[in-house]
From TrEMBL:
It comes from the Eukaryota. It comes from Glycine soja (Wild soybean). The keyword Repeat applies. Residues 10-20 have a biased composition (Basic and acidic residues). Residues 28-139 form the DUF7032 domain. This is U-box domain-containing protein 11 isoform A.
């Protein structure tokens, strides 16, 4: 197959030898024409396979003809097309040589060897046809032709777009070495700037990367996972990854079981973005993904542990796959990671435990949820939470701990345990912190802890909790206002706390303003409950009426807000008196 053909003239041989300096399209078309007309008709062996080869060769001839007509400059100016054209030229030479070996009655290289060479040729021709299709569709040849006509300085964005198209095309055609080089360049481009990610995604990089995951294990495949993980970190690109559906999900789950530490960590980063939808969460749970992720939490690299815990944290938010966590004894693994992992891993593990024991606020605690909360306590969850809280964790990272405290406290008996373990002091200590999300979480935890525990209500009041919550009633966001009203609606069940509230001139007026129906997104039952606990005080009632409570509450009665009718009646009795 490496010998030059005797039927070619000396001039033709020279053209083949020096094809990089000549028109590769014309060379290939000339060779193809000679091959189809003079060589193939003389073949005596494997005629069926050669008929298939003729079909591929004819397709290739059409592509080369279009190439010559539509992109006359590409063969000498575009490196990617040059590489493809010279590969085609070499394959055609090999094809002619192979066809000549099939012309005698007796095969000089034996039947098996010749058949193997012919199968290889058919595969190569098929790849060339596919590569031509990809190159034509990429737009690179049109771009190159335009540049040759009018060279101008492109903007940086246009340069990135052009480079992205070039790399995406190179990932699909050419040798493994060429694809590996393109992958290295693509990774560099993506890591340089998130805007580059957005441009590459718009040029169609994601489907190409997903197809590359079908390849056998290799360094390039691992870098493909890294590229996908980078795309997953850019918010605007996540929807494109999600559109790849179960195909991408299954590839990444296989990486969890068989990839290197590097690939596993990158796969987890990508899965973190993909695990936010119920459909994908269900798929991960049903395909053994939770088990794989828990194994990584136990034995993976520090980075992989943190990323795996982040995926589990997302999954735990979906109640319907909670049983998968129970079956895998996830609580034990998560508590261990929350006690000994890196800072990020610990935060994600606590966040995952918090999501696991969360319940829909509109429903009662189920037996399964109650048992899960008890399991967390029995396995050392309270001690783990205490250590995490006291470990000097940054205030932003305390939010997950506060939320976990809240969910544990929603079970009355566990709430009493938490009070005994000193969590009242810890909770009040973060209520006035500067981070809004932590304040809101703390106020909701105050509500959960105080709802079932008179002792907690008393202690929180003694520690000055009421005044901080009054200040939050005037917070800028609806979420903060509602959380503070929630907390106060239980704290004011204690007489001493009501006395503290009444002494603050802002409290009643701020609470009444929350009744205003025009303030949307706030559950009115909480300010109603709060004010109902104070309405029997003459001075408070006068403040409420003066601030417009009667008008607001009448509208709330019409909206069927719980407790509003009784509260309005109490306000009315005060007016009659």
């Amino acid at each position: 197959m490496n010998k030059r053909l005797s039927f070619l003239s000396h001039n033709e041989k020279s053209k083949m030898k020096d094809s990089t300096e000549t028109d590769a399209i014309s060379d290939s078309l000339e060779l193809l024409s000679t091959f189809l007309d003079s060589e193939l008709p003389s073949v005596r062996n494997f005629k069926g396979k050669w008929s298939l080869a003729r079909v591929k060769l004819t397709q290739l001839q059409t592509h080369l003809t279009d190439f010559s007509a539509e992109f006359p400059n590409a063969s000498t100016t575009n490196p990617l097309s040059l590489h493809l054209l010279h590969s085609i030229f070499k394959t055609l030479n090999d094809a002619v040589s192979l066809s000549r070996s099939c012309q005698p009655q007796t095969l000089p290289n034996g039947k098996l060897k010749t058949q193997s060479d012919l199968d290889s040729l058919l595969a190569t021709l098929d790849r060339h046809v596919s590569d031509c299709d990809i190159l034509f569709r990429s737009g690179l040849l049109l771009e190159n032709d335009a540049v040759s006509v009018s060279v101008s300085v492109s903007s940086k964005r246009e340069a990135i777009r052009s480079e992205s198209r070039n790399l995406i095309t190179r990932l699909q055609i050419g040798s493994p070495e060429s694809k590996a080089s393109a992958m290295d360049s693509l990774l560099g481009l993506l890591q340089e700037d998130d805007k580059n990610v957005t441009i590459a995604v718009a040029q169609g990089v994601v489907p190409v990367l997903v197809r590359l995951l079908d390849s056998p294990p290799s360094d390039t495949k691992e870098k493909t996972v890294a590229a996908i993980s980078k795309v997953s970190t850019v918010e605007s690109a996540k929807s494109v990854l999600l559109a790849e559906g179960l195909l991408l999900l299954n590839h990444l789950l296989r990486v969890l079981d068989s990839g290197s530490g590097f690939a596993i960590e990158k796969a987890c980063i990508a899965l973190r973005a993909l695990s936010l939808t119920k459909e994908n969460a269900r798929a991960i749970g049903s395909r053994g993904g939770i088990s794989s992720l828990l194994e990584i939490c136990q034995a993976g690299t520090p980075g992989a542990q943190a990323s795996a815990a982040a995926v589990l944290r997302n999954l735990a938010a979906f109640e319907e796959i909670r049983d998968n966590f129970v079956e895998e004894n996830a609580v034990v693994v998560l508590i261990a990671l929350a006690s000994s992992g890196t800072a990020v891993a610990r935060e994600n593990a606590v966040g995952c435990l918090s999501n696991l024991i969360n319940s829909d606020s509109s429903s009662e605690e189920t037996e399964g949820l109650s048992n899960l909360r008890i399991t967390v306590v029995k396995e050392g969850g309270v001690e783990c939470l205490k250590n995490y809280w006291d470990s000097g964790t940054q205030i932003q990272s305390l939010e997950v701990a506060v939320v976990m405290l809240r969910h544990l406290a929603e079970s009355g008996p566990i709430g009493e345990v938490l009070v005994g373990e000193g969590f009242v002091q810890r909770l009040v200590g973060v209520l006035n912190r500067e981070v809004l999300a932590v304040r809101i979480a703390a106020a909701r935890a105050v509500y959960a802890l105080g709802l079932n525990s008179g002792r907690a209500r008393k202690e929180m009041g003694e520690l000055g909790c009421v005044l901080g919550l009054i200040k939050m009633l005037d917070g800028k966001g609806v979420e903060e206002k509602e959380a503070s009203a929630m907390a106060l609606s239980v704290l004011l069940m204690h007489p001493a706390n009501r006395r503290v509230f009444r002494k603050d001139e802002r409290g009643v007026v701020s609470a009444v303003h929350l009744l205003n129906p025009s303030l949307q997104g706030l559950d009115k039952k909480y300010p109603v409950s709060l004010l109902a606990l104070l309405v029997h005080s003459k001075s408070c009632r006068k403040q409420m009426v003066a601030a417009g409570a009667c008008v607001y509450t009448q509208k709330l009665v019409e909206m069927d807000v719980p407790g509003s009718k009784k509260f309005l009646e109490s306000l009315g009795r005060g007016l009659i008196l």
